[in-house]
Design a protein that fits this description.
By secondary structure, the protein is an alpha+beta fold. The protein contains 6 helices and 6 strands.
Length: about 200
């Protein structure tokens, strides 16, 4: 069965799709739909965060680091004469200070998200990269949440509850979060309407 190229699809993308699908088992119409869906997934446009998110990451990291340093300082003051406690507190302080300086910038650069007609895709992490891909058709609930520090920086999170688990799109500007939640709601409603129409047919 001959499957035609779609707009803006490279030969590499076309070959990648051909490897993943058993074309012989599909009708021409089914194959064309699979191809179009795969192209949309390959062409997902990832969005990066606003610089406010970077400042927020630094502030929250500093707050938690200060709390841990206070605890480490108390342990050093009380048990500093014990050699392993002495060096343990010193090493912990160095690690915490390095984490406070390095981690937020790397997390900011790595964090990205994308939404198309088929799925929600988020990538984040520091030492370990976590990628979450959620089909939009499985979305049950969409909510916008904001903590006290997020409120100061006018940032919000869009939490999405699905049949298989939850995914959170974090560090968004308030207006972006509102727009994203509305977009997801419309996509879910469209899928529900289409499924009902197909069932009635």
């Amino acid at each position: 069965m001959a499957i035609e190229y779609t707009d803006n699809m490279t030969s590499e993308e076309y070959n990648e799709i051909r490897k993943e699908v058993n074309w012989e088992a599909l009708t021409k119409g089914q194959a064309q739909r699979v191809l179009q869906t795969s192209c949309r997934r390959l062409n997902m446009s990832y969005q990066k965060l606003d610089t406010k998110a970077l400042v927020y990451m630094y502030i929250t990291t500093i707050i938690w680091s200060v709390i841990v340093l206070i605890i480490a300082g108390g342990a050093y003051y009380k048990f500093g004469e014990i050699i392993y406690v002495h060096w343990g507190c010193i090493l912990s302080t160095i690690v915490i200070l390095l984490d406070m300086i390095i981690t937020p910038g790397i997390r900011y650069k790595r964090y990205r998200y994308a939404i198309n007609e088929e799925q929600i895709d988020t990538i984040e992490g520091f030492l370990f990269i976590q990628r979450q891909i959620v089909p939009i058709e499985r979305v049950h609930k969409i909510s916008i949440n904001q903590g006290p520090i997020e409120h100061i920086f006018h940032l919000s999170r869009v939490n999405v509850v699905t049949a298989g688990g939850d995914v959170s799109i974090k560090y968004l500007k308030e207006e972006t979060a509102q727009m994203l939640a509305e977009t997801l709601k419309n996509k879910v409603n469209t899928i529900v309407v289409n499924e009902r129409e197909e069932t009635n047919v």
